[in-house]
Fold this protein.
Amino acid sequence: MTHTCFPSNFIWGAATASYQIEGAWNEDGKGESIWDRFSHTPGAVANGDTGDVACDHYHRWCEDVALMKTLGLQAYRFSIAWPRLLPAGRGDVNQAGLDFYDRLVDALLEAGITPFVTLYHWDLPQALQDAGGWPARATAEAFVEYADLASRALGDRVAHWITLNEPFVSAVVGYLDGRHAPGHTNLDEMLAAAHHLLLGHGWAVPVIRQNRPQAEVGIVLNLGGQHPASPSPADRAAAWRQDGVIHRWFLDPLAGRGYPADVVQWRGRPMDFVMGGDLEHIAAPLDFLGVNYYTRGIVRSQEIPENENEPRTVFPNPEHTEMGWEVYPEGLYEILGRLHFCYPFPALYVTENGAAYPDQVGPSGEVDDARRVSYLEQHLVQAGRAIAVGVPLRGYFAWSLLDNFEWAHGYSKRFGLVYVDYRTQQRILKRSAHWYGRVIAANGVMD
Ligand code: GCO
């Protein structure tokens, strides 16, 4: 057994997102979001689940902060529901919404827990969607107003700000695949949405810094290596394209390199939504990049027939999570190394990492999620390896603090360190929560 130790200032946290936990979807003046609308659309979400109640965190935040304290969390990453602050997306401010986050931040600080605030984790005000959504440039302008409001209200106490969570998913899954709100399937909308998300981000960065000098400002991307299934030129080209679509389309403009020419050419669509100066704004210097890592992709070319391709040499590890995602911990080391050596971001955080398993409450009321413990442990060992080769990894956030609303899967997938009985709203610390508490206390893992 060896001990993977983390730097003494390493930050241990857990993450959630507003729509996934808060509930209270129409209380205290909150406006409708695209996820309210989408989840209320028959057939959109598994079992007809909605976030109407979710973990009822809006009413149980105090208990939830106490849970975090029990775990010894040093930081908590949560998101603000934009339509709670601005019910129509822009204009009139809902003071009750601001008060909720105000109390939450105060309670966290009181408990010695550093808040990491995500401004946008996918719950766009429906009014802005009705006016065109992210494919409309005006939505990026509205985002900056919202970022200004939130950072003015909380900036005296919140020093860590994340503009967007996974703009790839907002754009591609929301506007091209249609599996997420608003459920559209249009390539040109998707491309414009991705650009306006990045633009809103780039415009918001200096505004947040102005409201909170010395703030640490970053963005969170979903990242995970795309490996060719064989060394054939076709598979390598296909994997590089996937990498371009998922990673470089976002990383490159953020790093000041513009959109990747190979993907622009492959898409073959007009990019007339890019205005002069946009790319400079998108490249606003960041204090950190947040990495959400769950798995990798193994890419097989679809462009040549299987029997003309070279035999596969890369096979998935047999272990999968309940999402069907391969457990591939080395991928965390790979992506962190790549980001450090190939991109200029001064610091990195793992802003999400975790796994869904079919947890059950045992006869004596315990939840023995040994597989989640193993998943998390293996990934932490890889995070430790990355630090050992010089990656400036500053912290790690487990996804998620609580079982919650897993988007189109509804409540069928449990990612939490803490089990939630959705009937009674009882919270039960899983074995992984107790284990994580010990990791935090020891500032490392035994492997
Ligand atoms: C994401 C989101 C989270 C998910 C989690 C598990 O990465 O998709 O940030 O909201 O719940 O990743 O899929």
